[in-house]
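Hello again,

I reread your note about wanting to compare the complex against the isolated chains. To keep things tidy I'm splitting this into two emails, and this first one only covers the full assembly. Below are the input lines as submitted, including protein chains and any nucleic acid or small-molecule components. They are followed by the predicted structure of everything together. The single-chain runs will come separately.
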Amino acid sequence: MLEARLASAAVLKKLLDGTAIKELVTDCNLEANEEGIGLQAMDNSHVALVTVQLEAGEFDSYRCDRNMPLGVNLGSLTKILRCAKDNDVVTLKASDDADSLTLLFESPNSDRVGEYDMKLMDIDQEHLGIPDTQYDATITFSSTEFARICRDLSALGESVKIEVDKQGIRFSSDGEIGNGSVLLKHSAGRGGAPAENKPKVKKETKRDPDDEDGSDADEEDVKPDVDEDDVKPEVDEDEEEYELQDEPEIVEDKPKKRGRAPAKKETNGKATKKVTACKTKDGDEDGEVGVSIILQQSVSLTFSLKYLLNFAKSAPLSKYVTLNMSNEVPLLVAFEFSQGHINYYLAPKVSLAYAIRDL
Amino acid sequence: MLEARLASAAVLKKLLDGTAIKELVTDCNLEANEEGIGLQAMDNSHVALVTVQLEAGEFDSYRCDRNMPLGVNLGSLTKILRCAKDNDVVTLKASDDADSLTLLFESPNSDRVGEYDMKLMDIDQEHLGIPDTQYDATITFSSTEFARICRDLSALGESVKIEVDKQGIRFSSDGEIGNGSVLLKHSAGRGGAPAENKPKVKKETKRDPDDEDGSDADEEDVKPDVDEDDVKPEVDEDEEEYELQDEPEIVEDKPKKRGRAPAKKETNGKATKKVTACKTKDGDEDGEVGVSIILQQSVSLTFSLKYLLNFAKSAPLSKYVTLNMSNEVPLLVAFEFSQGHINYYLAPKVSLAYAIRDL
DNA sequence: TGGATAGCAT
DNA sequence: ATGCTATCCA
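Full-complex prediction:
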């Protein structure tokens, strides 16, 4: 039995309407359980993976007795969410034997009530465990800037090379008409992205903050990297340790696995994760949000712009985006918003070589 | 000889450009006479009928010596109206032997004058007499809300069931992806739609206010149901009597007539009518306009959303829309604006059964 | 932010 | 030919 209430439909609408999820996959399970509502979907070509988590604690009220996989058609869900106005109060309901999900949209003063039942389907979806990876480079900056760069460079070529070093992050693309690159310099001295809009840094749903080594890392706890939590100016050396899950090896949907059935690995539970980047409280709220770069090691990776463009559509959800990269490893593009987060993983383009080899 | 002058082209533009008229019919007669300019058109499938009346008295100047049917192609008229700016002064001219209609568009300060001649055609159009019907349910509410509901529900299914009872009005639709419903609650205590923007409650063009039983109901008088005029909270009982024409029987284009030639009934003249819903002066001007429900009897009817979507495109003409319904009778969707009104009639879907039987 | 249009898919 | 999606414009 699920009953979850959100004060505003805006986030849900943005999540499904604007966003790239439904461009990656048409059907997928919403996983409702005590921790909240999650979603995991890999695109057909197995190059990209998206993960969403809405935290139970961030709902206005939340009740879910047991694990409930709600198989939805994302197009249908999108259509129905379009029937909500941004400031409508949303209630999601599903009974245990649910073959449908009920969405209730109430105007703030309740003089308009929309009730929508969406048929659910059985989706045999493997749930990937995504270990919490330590990345060599973590860059947090304006999400609209990110969208802008992807858009700009997509005018030139189909892929973008992203290079990060101590100086900054460089996006570059080549094509018939020429080539271009955008360099974002590390906002030295300033702390990069302010905490604002990267909501409540930690709001442990049920685990306590230091219980992070759980063998079954089904906790998608928002508790980050305590050390870089505050005003500490980013450094490029290696003392920026994330709290690491016990599985340092790389994501399931890694390039090498392409072409085969995706690894079914239920062990890690929901396995959403959050590599929260540094956030400092200092200034530049408004326009300039700064560029925060945390670097273990320089990285250089190439990605499909088509996917990044899609990912960037999530920009309305958050003022900031965090790019997490290690060489030869899928990029993680993470947006955090008040009720949760959305993470996109994208295999680097070199991976295609492996994939072809594997075929 | 017709010469009619409007201070602003905006209404004309909205009437023909945004609106659904030209989606229902391609050619039709504009009927100019002393009462103003009218239009009546039935769509090809004879399911929907639209009626427009521009009151002579609401023009800045109006002169029309005799009945003049001006056969226009609505696409052409639309194209020409697009040549007017919203605040242009419009003058319509046609001579008695007119085979063309002249439209004059003058900028407010007269430093730009556009003159357009549109070829007219002979259209052998039967003019339907539409008796003033007493409806079991009359609902007045925000026209944009109406448009929104039609749009939302059309994502789900092809038809909408409209149910009205004392509590409110419910629109619901079923389809493959699920089903949905929107309930608007009667704005109890508040007066429903404020008078504002439901223009000049009565502006008797030439008849005097109490001469409403005119056998030829060509008067489209806005004088309503005096009793419910003000702060009086709506009641659901039957004292809400409309002023009734002498023909209580039902509209010509009733379901049973479908498939045959529409009844030609010139007796009632133009036969526009107005079942003006209650309007009170009290509050909530801005966002919430309230929902006024006047109910003789609960109704439940099903309509094609495709048509309602079209009708709803007239929302820019008025802040309010009025739905008039009786069971088994065509719905009347009425918009009133400063210069007149536009009425859409739509046969309920049950009619299709009759229609098929009639075939 | 919402509406309109044009292109693509069914 | 129609409906839907995606992009563009107001």
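For quick reference: Helices of chain A lie at 10-18, 21-24, 74-81, 143-154, 305-312, 351-358.

B.
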